[in-house]
Amino acid sequence: MGITQTHLFTDAQNELANVAKALAHPARIAIIQYLIKTNTCINGDLVQELGLAQATISQHLRELKEIDIIQGTIEGTKVNYCINPEKWNSIKSLFLGLFDQFNSNNPSTCC
Amino acid sequence: MGITQTHLFTDAQNELANVAKALAHPARIAIIQYLIKTNTCINGDLVQELGLAQATISQHLRELKEIDIIQGTIEGTKVNYCINPEKWNSIKSLFLGLFDQFNSNNPSTCC
DNA sequence: TTTATTCATCGTAATATTGCAATATATTAT
DNA sequence: ATAATATATTGCAATATTACGATGAATAAA
Fold it and tell me: Which listed residue, of A11, A59, B21, B54, carries a Cα 20 to 30 Å from A51's Cα?
């Protein structure tokens, strides 16, 4: 085997896991934080900033783009990337939904 | 190659990515949600609930335990698992810190 | 038209993850 | 002591991820 059995889980569980997977690499966290700071940037900026190869950055950008966390607009030979605010908010809600299921005010219930 | 270049990133970025990685599988999301609902359970409960093999559940539990999201206390032949409230809150803060870096009230700044 | 710039994609190697059967370990019950 | 129960660990196969050089495609500048 070696393939995730997605059929065993709910759509919500698979979706949350997929978003978490997109955030599960420090380079992608760094890209997101850089985009938050600078508002927009190009692939080349990130190569400079992070010190990974151009192809590697491009690959990470594609993963973030695939689940719609970021979007890219072509401008000449460059591609301007930025965070998708709607998706960002929906992801935030997704995680808050998970976090708030747990009543942290009642720690005595732990085993 | 094929190994994450953690030295290129900050401790905070690596930590956030590691936590996200622990959440990046629907089985582990399901385990956490089941624990939130039932407060405590054993490996066998999760085998019944999720339909994965015992060895597979045990492996997922170990991953969650390794980053301290859950803890297990031995009781006879069984092990009672539960969520670690302190760690849960610190993880929640970690994600909120990321989400709140982005000013979602200003969507016009997107590319 | 040629050259430079920027980015995506392909191919490949190294490593990590997922899943499970088989086995080991540890405790409880008979 | 033996059997039953519950979980962890080992070993292995299938698949996925990470990283990067090389190449391709597309636009801009000379």
Answer: B21
**Is A32 domain-assigned?**
yes
Q: Are strands A78-83 and A70-75 parallel, antiparallel or unpaired?
A: antiparallel
Q: How many domains does chain A have?
A: 1
Give yes or no for a contact between A82 and A70, defined as CB atoms under 8 angstroms apart: yes
Residue B104 lies in a domain: no
Domain-located, residue B106: no
Which of B1, B18, B23, B75 would you mutate first to test chain A, the one with the most A CBs within 10 A? B23
pLDDT by residue for chain B (111 residues), tens digit each? 679 999 999 999 999 999 999 999 999 999 999 999 999 999 999 999 999 999 999 999 999 999 999 999 999 999 999 999 999 999 999 999 999 988 765 555 567
The span from the CA of A67 to the CA of A60, in Å, is: 11
Check B33 against A13: CB less than 8 A apart.
Answer: yes
List the A96 CA – D12 C1' distance (angstroms): 39
Domain residues for the domain of B84 are 10-94
Instruction: Mark out the alpha helices in A1-108 (DSSP H runs).
Output: 11-22, 26-38, 43-50, 54-66, 85-99
pTM here is 0.94
Q: Answer whether residue B40 is part of any domain.
A: yes
What positions of strand D are covered by protein, i.e. any atom < 7 Å from a CB?
A: 4-11, 13-22, 26-28
Residue A76 CA, nucleotide C5 C1', distance (Å): 10
Between CA B36 and CA B8 the distance in angstroms is: 36
Give the CATH number of the domain where residue B78 resides: 1.10.10.10
